[in-house]
Input
Amino acid sequence: MFNQKILTTAGIIFIWIGISYAQTLSDLKIDSAYFNAKKGIYWGLSNLNLKKSSIENDLIINDRKISSVKIDKQVNGFKILSTGFFESYEVQIKLFKSNETLIKEGFIKPDSLKQKSPGETSSKKKKK
Output
């Protein structure tokens, strides 16, 4: 009876350790995918384009895609969607930043917002 309790207790401990190890391993892989998604966000912030309404790019390191980034120009700001990959794990981060915040943080220059949008016509009339 005593040996059976010891074996049962030892079995429970080993199962608990195995589950904890598996969970820790999953957490590490999720963290790696999250870290790769953050790399995509930083790439997106560094590559904002005021002339294009949308940009898409994949970040590849050592022949592996680590992140897919999509930048969409919004009214008065930008939306950056970054998906980070690690093995079979995928983590997505969506970031919205206003033009004012991007200027304060130094990602865009204040003068660049004063440019005309493509297709915008001039209000001045030509004199004949």
